Amino acid sequence: MAEVIFFIAAIGAVAGALGTVLLRNAFHSVLSLVCHLIALAALFLLLRAEFVAAAQVIVYAGAVMVLYVFVVAYIGGGDRPLAGPAGPGLKVLSALFAGVLFAELTIALVGSGLSALESEGAPYEPGFGSPSQIGGLFLTKFLIAFEIASILLLVAAVGAVILARRRSGLEDPREVSVADVMRGRHGTLTDAPPETMLEAGGPPRR
Amino acid sequence: MNLTWYLVASALIFSAGAGGILVRRNPLVILLCLELMLNAANLALVAFARAHGNADGQVFALIVMVVAACEVAVGLGLIVAIFRRRLPIDVDELRELQG
Amino acid sequence: MSLQAYAWIVLLAPLAGCVVIALTWRLLPARAHGVIGTLAIFVSFLAALGALVELDERRVVSVAWDYASTAGVDAQLSILVDPLSVFMALVVSGVSTLIHLYSVAYMGGDRGYTRFFAYLNYFVFSMLLLVLAGNFLVLIVGWAFVGAASYLLISFWYRRRTATRAGIKAFVINVVGDVGLVLGTYFIFRGTHSLDFLKTFEAVGEAFGRNDGDLVAGCILLLVGAFAKSAQVPLHTWLPDAMEGPTPVSALIHAATMVTAGVYLIARMHPLFEQAPAAADVGAIIGCLTLLIAATIGLVVTDLKRVIAYSTMSQIGYMVMAVSSAAYAAGLFHLMTHAFFKALLFMAAGSVIAAMAGVQDLDRMGGFRRAMPFTFAAMVIGGLPLSGIPPFSGFFSKDEILALLFAREDWHVVLGVLGYVGALLTAIYTFRMIFRAFYGEPVPEARALEDGHLFHAEHPANPATGEVEDTDVGFPGPEHHIAERALPMKAAMGVLAVLAVVGGIPQIPRVTDVLHEFLAPSFEDSRLYEELEPSATLVWVGLVVGAALGVLGIFIAYTLWVKQPERPRALRARLAPLHRLFVNKWYFDELIDAVFVRPGAMTGRFARNVFERAVVNGLLVGGTSGLVRGAGAAVRRAQSGYVRYYAALLLVGLTGLSAYFLISA
A27: how many CB neighbours lie within 10 A of its CB? Predict the structure, then answer.
């Protein structure tokens, strides 16, 4: 029974992954990823990680992917061809490389002779992977990681707000791109006299 | 089910994600492929946790999920900002940081 | 007041004068600064007189401050007050006061008047520091300060290129002397382990054997310092060029004081020189050479001040010869009388040059006798002691030197004979100068003066090169002051004239012995000081011969330049090669140029073009920076800006790494 569910879930996950990579429309890729995530949640359940599976569905597939959906809806899918100016050669090469990577990882796994790999795993204890156990671990052994993760979330939230805020009116002089300033196309945007050679557009001409 | 299957699946998803990063030009899709890789790692972690009977791997996987969420927030914010500036959403065009 | 107090006042009054002038330079009118400067030196002179009264034949060391007493080096700010230093202080401060008085009038109208007095006071301070020094450290400091003051004063009219070049030349040659002085000190210190004079003199007997290599080397290095400062061959080339400075500067520095520092040095270091007679002999020979070479050049130069400069060089040659041959009192006596009559000569020359509106060329002067009687009298009164005519001061001092040289009765007798030859030449060139400037047809400037107005040139110009100047700061002022019309100048010259006449009285041979006895405590550790005593016959013969040579010289000069003015030209044609040698100053400048200056410049050019440009800039700096830049450029190409490229790099790297670990495991 477990094998059957495993295979269904695994095939679903791999298919979702391949769909994300290969589908042209970005929206389709997003939806494909959502399927992938749900399949992965099933795999987690098989591995007795109940809380992680729940978190995967609620947080990852629920919140994070919703973000993606919103952004794709805002931006638009864009039906662009996969290969760019580099040509289709890049596609082949990348696929080849991915294959190489897979092969290498598999060799590492299978050929390494890890003792754990052949076994069925440790005996199951009741309460393994339950929310209470995870919670306990978070508040005792991994307390610092927990706190730092919350700080990280705060930083990300602030960063995201700043990055995406809209500015009204004329382009703020502080919004010039660095490249333009380096190319000397800006001078001083106000009436102030140029104070550096960069602003003046070069050394003083006699 | 023995562990190897999970790990092979993880490896497969990981390589798919890696290949996707190399191929796709839409930064959004690249981020999606990045998510793929992260999920593959999560799968491996949880599998090992089950194998050792130690829930530390699951905690690690949860933290990875937190990090992925943060990174997604910031990355999507970037893409929205790029879109607002009317720049093309194409990593091949966004090359201002060249040396 | 105590002796130490007097001595410190002597030293510090000029410094106070300099500082006050410098700090109030905008606050007071220029003349006030002249008065302050003169008063400061006068106070110093009075304090020197006080020290003279309190001296009582002792030698006192007064320490102001201990710089360092570590590792066997006793470095203190100390002054040595003994008859020799009080004598020198009196001469320096006395003549300086008179020259300051002269300058108050002479430099009137010059935009740099205040600066001039500040510099003059600073110079007198440094000279007094030098003569009052109680150890080698303070001596070296004073030596260096004097060199600096000399530079400042020679290039006083700093917008004149010739003046600044002359100042630099003087300074560089003085620095060579400084190096010699410091190295010589080192050699001596190594043996005696003390920088203090009195301790060194006591220790020199045990520390060094007679003519010990180290001591001879040290003394010869000291001599290098003395020769540079006193303009002896071969370090003399700066003195004629130094005439670019204003005339009071020439009078003070290059006649009476700075150039006598070398003589003072040798006299002060007499215990060292008596222990290393080889070095003393070198000094005597160089002194003799210098007096002859300078006298021959003085016969042919046409610049009025340069004649007097070469005369100074020659007379200092006498002094150096004297103190190197243990005739200490005689040499110092000549130092004193020379200060009087040479300063007087320079002052008179300044007056003549002012009448000529800045021109110093003898060829353009003539017939000033009627127009400038006072200046003429001053010049004659200055010229007579110089030529050794009795009963003037110079006669007694010069003949005492020569008599003592004969009294040595070894090869020094040759030096004595050459000294008499030099005396003849001295008389000739001195009166050549006087006859050419004051006799003959009056030149336009003289005629103008006879009519009662001072000649002024249309455009102020550099007298040597003729470049047009202005009269703003950095160039001479628009006014010219002659002695007949300026009371301070007359007063100063008058006092010096009296001194030049009666200055010989303290040391008339066989009659008075004032100086010799006064200086005896300073020389009590000298073997030869008391021993060296010329016999009566020697003295009388010397006096007669000297007087005769002086009168003969005047007669020859009179014949050549007054009675038969065509003769000099004919002589010049007959002795053309000799004349050329003398006019080119024995080619010393060319020699130094070829041996030192040109190789130096070549080395510099090589260092700049080859070494600096190619090796340092090109290879080392350019190489390393080029390397860094190249590496940076290479690395920069990796920054393509393509996100996928970076990602690819990451993944490929990861794969590679895992492969490596797989394979190695």
Answer: 17
Contact across the interface for C655 and A112, Cβ inside 8 Å: no
Per-10-residue mean pLDDT for chain A, 206 residues long? 90 94 91 95 92 94 92 78 62 87 86 65 79 91 94 91 68 61 59 65 64
The domains of chain C are located at: 3-583, 611-664
Cβ-based neighbours of C324, under 8 Å, separated by 6 or more? C266, C273, C280, C281, C282, C283, C284, C287
Question: Which string of DSSP letters, residue by residue, matches B3-40?
Answer: HHHHHHHHHHHHHHHHHHHHH---HHHHHHHHHHHHHH
Interaxial angle between packed helices B27-52 and C643-664, expressed in degrees from 0 to 180 and rounded to the nearest 10 = 30
Give A-chain residues touching B66 at CB under 8 angstroms: 149, 152-153
| B20 in any annotated domain | yes
- What pLDDT, on a 0 to 100 scale, did the predictor assign at position C445? 81
Average pLDDT over residues C171-182: 94
Across the range C554-582, mean pLDDT stands at 83
The single residue listed with the structure tokens 């000029």 is C14
Answer whether A159 touches B (CB < 8 Å).
yes
CB of C659 less than 8 A from some CB of B: no
CA distance B34 to chain A (A): 10
B 13-72 → A contacts, CB under 8 A: 13-20, 22-26, 28-29, 31-33, 35-36, 39, 42-43, 46-56, 58-59, 61-63, 65-72
Q: Which residues contact B52 (CB under 8 A, 6 or more apart)?
A: A116, A121, A122
**Chain B residues with beta carbon closer than 8 angstroms to that of C639:** 97-99
Q: What count of Cα atoms within 13 Å lies in the side-chain half-sphere of residue B41?
A: 17
d(CA C147, CA C312): 18
For residue B23, the domain's CATH number is: 1.10.287.3510
What is the Rg, in whole angstroms, of the alpha carbon atoms belonging to chain C? 30
In whole angstroms, give the CA distance from residue C415 to residue C412.
Answer: 5
The ipTM assigned to this model is 0.91
* List of chains touching A (3+ CB pairs within 8 A): B, C
Least confident of A83-87, C249-253, C308-312: A83-87
Nearest one of C534, C86, C61, C522 to C271, comparing CA atoms: C522
Which residue segment(s) compose the domain that B31 sits in? Answer: 3-84
CA distance A47 to B6: 9
**Mutation to test the B interface, candidates C635, C640, C644, C645, most B Cβ within 10 Å:** C644
CA dihedral C620, C622, C627, C633 (to 10 degrees): 170
pLDDT at site C442: 84
- The region that residue C285 occupies, defined by phi over 0 for left and psi between -120 and 50 for alpha, beta otherwise, is alpha
Cβ contact B90–A80 (<8 Å)? yes
Rounded to the nearest angstrom, the minimum Cα separation between A177 and chain C is 15
Give chain B's end-to-end CA distance (angstroms, integer).
Answer: 50
**Neighbouring residues of A101: CB distance < 8 A, sequence distance ≥ 6:** B14, B15, B18, B19, C651, C655
The number of beta carbons lying within 10 Å of the beta carbon of residue C562 is 14
Based on the structure, what is the number of domains in chain B? 1
- Chain-chain contact of B50 with A161 (C-beta, under 8 angstroms): no
Q: Evaluate whether residue B42 is within a structural domain.
A: yes
C471-480 per-position pLDDT tens digit: 777 888 778 8
Task: Report whether C189 contacts C199 (CB < 8 A).
Answer: no
pLDDT tens digit sequence for C515-544: 888 888 888 877 777 777 778 888 888 888
What tokens were used for C239?
A: 């003195």
Beta strands in C256-308 (DSSP E): none
Q: Determine, yes or no, domain membership for B79.
A: yes
Contact C312, C254 (CB under 8 A): yes
Q: Is the peptide bond preceding residue C234 cis, with omega within 30 degrees of 0? A: yes
Q: Which residue has the higher pLDDT, C561 or A143?
A: A143
